[in-house]
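Reproducibility note. Readers wishing to regenerate the assembly model reported in the main text can use the exact inputs given here. Chain order matters: entities are listed in the order in which they were concatenated for prediction.
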Amino acid sequence: MRRIAIAVAAPTLTFALAACGALGGSGSSTDASPTKGDDLTVGLLLPETANTRYEKFDHPIIKEKVAALTRNQGKVEYANADADAGRQAGQMQRMIDNKVDVILLDAVDSHAIADMVRKAKEAGIPVIAYDRLSEGPIDAYISFDNGLVGEVQGRSLLEALGSDVDTSDKIVMINGSPTDPNAKQFKEGAISQLSGKVTIAKSYDTKDWKPENAEANMAQALASLGTDNIAAVYSANDGMASGVIKAFKAAGITDLPVITGQDAELDAVQRIVTGEQYMSVYKSYPTEAETAAQMAVAKVQGKDIQFDSLTRDRVSSPTHKNIPAQLVSVVALTRNNIKDTVIADGIYKKSDICTAKYREACEAIGLK
Ligand code: GAL
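Running the prediction on these inputs yields the following structure tokens for the assembly.
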């Protein structure tokens, strides 16, 4: 609870100060040009399209917020790498050549991109890591509390198994991409809750976070463990949960075990309504994306006080320590709080979720 309060309070405070004219434009940053006005360009590099969040939320929200912060004069130059690290390096090089004023980088491969981060810095372009902590000399990091995401997933899974959970109960872990540092944090957070409580019978890292790769790994787990021996599947996100479910169905199983997820994708919320998926993790994309836009604009305009107030946390990457950061809190999304999370925040309307196919199931859980 406390973490939520902090995460939400920081941007509000910034707005308040800015509104009173308390924040000047004369920063001492070596990267940003304090004289830069509203006609700025933010380079935005997002990692993939297989999961819906990037095209549906991250990009449009950042674009809108940059416009709002710059009296419609600021632009976003956008590129999506489609899970290809080499392509992302090329996209970043183009942004450096185009002399964008700041780069928001959500890395496909947090290690491989470090050289490009260095190049941007040499060209005087600040780099803010977005969602995934990239290596190299980044100026700041904005993300969710990724360890907490994993803990929430692990705790929910145990809750769903109930009080008669036994250490011999077998679970399968379908983790995210090995090149995404978040995936490691999700996994560690989940293991911190699960270890000693259940048996992790199989664990896979999923190339590129692709649902079809998750499906193949799950099919392999089913073949080796047997179809009635799996109490739960830890799936690190919703896209992969859909692949996991396909593998169960292909093996002829309709009575699905407990399955977790993350990202509150619309399909997943519908699966939660019908009970096919137990939970997801709701991450407030507006909070993360709007804060990223505020950080980027403050950095370019040399508004150091504002920038500092947005980055009160500290994180370390494998290459750098004490990176200014903001880590936004997250909550478990189950059939009990659909209304108070995704609907309350305007992410989906009830009518988006409760289409004809889901009307009955919606009514059954009181979503009317
Ligand atoms: C993670 C991100 C998740 C999910 C996943 C798949 O880095 O934090 O929200 O989208 O990537 O792309």
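We highlight two features of this model. The two ends are 28 Å apart (CA to CA). The chain has 14 helices and 13 strands.
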